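Batch manifest, entry 17 of 40.
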Amino acid sequence: MYWKTLNEWDSCRSWWQPVARKRCSPQHIFASWWQVQTHQDRTWGRSEAGYWAQALLVDGYEGYQPACEQYHITRLGCWAHARRKFVDAQKLQPKGKTGKPDQLLAYIQALYRIEKTIKHHPPDERYRIRQQQSKPLIDKMRKWLIKNLSQVPPKTALGKALYYLDHQWPRLVRYLEDGHYPMDNNSAENAIRPFAVGRKNWLFAKSQAGARASANLYGLIETAKANQLNPFEYLKVVFKELPNAQTLEQIEVLLPSQYKLTVDEWRTMVGLALTFLQI
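Output type: structure tokens
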């Protein structure tokens, strides 16, 4: 994601990582991290990613690989990006005709149907079902890929899609290894969509400091959304209470994840009280 400052192009990257809570390990806190870097800087937040990321789900861009290797981060592939290339190849088929892109897309659609049914299952249950249902489909897809890879010219749209799938295969199938891992990074892409749309209205940032301030606000708002909070109502509370916060603990209470816990606990207490009164 790029926008123009007065002197150079800067970039904004959205990183998503579930962070385990110490109070309750099965539960996860979702945070959206937006970072600003100069276009010439190719490190893409290696030090920050190495500090807190255990796994990174991205597309096929190899600029992420040095950070994964340096900090021993598990790199996952995005099935949405792989699928998109076969959709592009499908569009080039003669109207009313079906072919190899349709066959591969049918496999991917079947995998997504499984994911839809286990979306709200606990990680261990998702892992078990993936091993039972998704892995056999993955194995069949791999055999299909090997068979067709040598039969399609590599410079065609379908050939490029097959090559991308083959090159990214170890990363794409890695989601089977852990029930916490998602199949794609659509959550991160949805988070940066408001910025991508609005960028047409505010292409220029006066300085890198201003760009960082924008990134911080986007990260806070998208993290609030990820924790099922109303951003407007949440920010009203932050702007009211933050000036009175004197300690780190008082500031942390206002973070979206902690604020959500406070609201959820309050709702639980009210619900229990109402249940007791009805009895």
